[in-house]
Design goal:
By secondary structure, this protein is of the alpha/beta class. It has two domains: 242 residues, 3-Layer(aba) Sandwich (Aspartate Aminotransferase, domain 2), CATH 3.40.640; 124 residues, Aspartate Aminotransferase, domain 1. The protein contains twelve helices and twelve strands. Helix 2 runs parallel beside helix 8, helix 3 crosses helix 7 and helix 9 packs parallel to helix 12. It binds pyridoxal-5'-phosphate.
């Protein structure tokens, strides 16, 4: 699905030298590499504050802690996402309120958000799923009307651009009160281990999040907040600095592969290629197709595997149908779009090193096997 080995070989010299530097400095935690990466990411995203942390799940948790939400407060998010988004809501004793996905973009359904606002609603977490932004203009408008916080789960879309109707362009994750991301190795900006970050333009929130990631302290051994221990280590920061410089090039390579796939499947009536919202570009964390209902997905996956083509299902079970997230609020059948997607989506290999030969092989086999 991803070819991190080839990608590493293309940047090996730089990466190896940077890692060796960190080893020689022995500044493994919060060293100069972390500071430098933080500054460079702030510059890239055009955001006032980047707060590095241990992983993307921690980032979401720290964001909700910084907003001061209390048990019983409701947080609206999508049922069609990776579990981390809802997990942190539940973990903090807040109530996840799940809504359906948009059938074309797979991001959070705007009507679903509107219809689920109560006097307990405190925040919305849109997920920029698979690499394109959710409809942030509509979400910010709802949030302003109802005085809600917005935390963007940007784990899959770092580098994407959002265009507002007045022409303003912002980087994904810098629009809501807080944006979060993950540097998990297979993410678009992936480290060689775990990592994550929070973004905000709000000085006060930034201050609070910097304390929370470090045991709630500003002055050593004086704890003003209940915090956590969540750090990005210097070796990861050193790798991320190199890969950040290549991020736009990597996004372009992903788009090249996506365009190749789109063209090859354009006249295949059994395959629906990804649709992109008019307000966003796409960095293709995943290239996800919707198969016609007549196609047996398991069989197709098996046949692809026999031909050495990996394919994955993101995600096979929407959160409202997961054991851990069952609720009296909803039952099977309530979110038809997500339930349909869960049954019929399939993701093809997507990474920065796909070449024409591989793309030709994959698309020819896919077209043959879906006849
Ligand atoms: C990967 C991911 C996360 C969690 O990131 P980790 O670094 O693995 O903790 C959260 N949300 C989404 C949408 C993700 O894809």
């Amino acid at each position: 699905m991803v070819d991190l080995v080839s990608q590493y070989h293309n940047i090996k010299k730089e990466v190896d030298a940077s890692i060796m530097n960190v080893l020689e400095s022995a500044a493994f935690i919060n060293g100069p590499e972390v500071k430098a990466f933080q500054k460079e990411l702030e510059e890239y995203l055009q955001v006032k504050h980047v707060i590095p942390c241990g992983n993307g799940t921690d980032a979401l948790q720290i964001a909700l802690m910084a907003l001061g939400l209390k048990p019983g407060d409701e947080v609206i998010t999508t049922t069609f996402t990776f579990v981390a988004t809802a997990e942190v809501i539940a973990l903090l004793g807040l109530t996840p309120v799940l809504v359906d996905a948009d059938p074309d973009t797979f991001t959070i359904d705007i009507e679903g958000v509107k219809n689920n606002i109560t006097d307990k609603t405190k925040a919305i977490i849109p997920v920029h799923l698979f690499g394109q932004c959710a409809n942030m203009e509509a979400i910010m408008q709802i949030a302003n009307e109802h005085n809600l916080y917005v935390v963007e789960d940007n784990a899959q879309a770092i580098g994407a651009n959002y265009t507002f109707s007045d022409g303003t362009v912002k980087k994904s994750g810098t629009i809501g009160n807080i944006g979060t991301t993950s540097f998990f190795p297979s993410k678009n900006l992936g480290a060689y281990g775990d990592g994550g970050a929070l973004f905000t333009n709000d000085d006060e929130l930034a201050d609070k999040m910097r304390m929370i990631v470090n045991h709630g302290m500003k002055v050593r051994y004086y704890h003003d907040e209940i915090g956590v221990n969540s750090r990005l280590d210097s070796i990861q920061a050193a790798v991320l600095r190199i890969k950040l410089r290549k991020l736009d090039e990597y996004s372009a390579a992903r788009n090249y592969a996506a365009n190749y796939y789109n063209q090859a499947f354009a006249s295949n009536p059994k395959i629906k290629t990804p649709a992109i919202g008019t307000y966003t570009d796409h960095v293709f964390h995943q290239y996800t197709l919707v198969l016609d209902e007549s196609i047996n997905r398991d069989e197709l996956r098996e046949k692809l595997a026999e031909n050495d083509i990996p394919a994955m299902i993101y995600y096979p079970v929407p959160l409202h149908m997961q054991k851990a997230y069952k609720s009296e609020r909803y039952s099977e059948g309530d979110f038809p779009v997500s339930e349909h997607l869960a049954k019929h989506v399939i993701s093809l290999p997507m990474h920065t090193e796909l070449d024409d030969e591989q793309l030709a092989y994959i698309t020819a086999k896919m077209n043959e096997l879906t006849q």
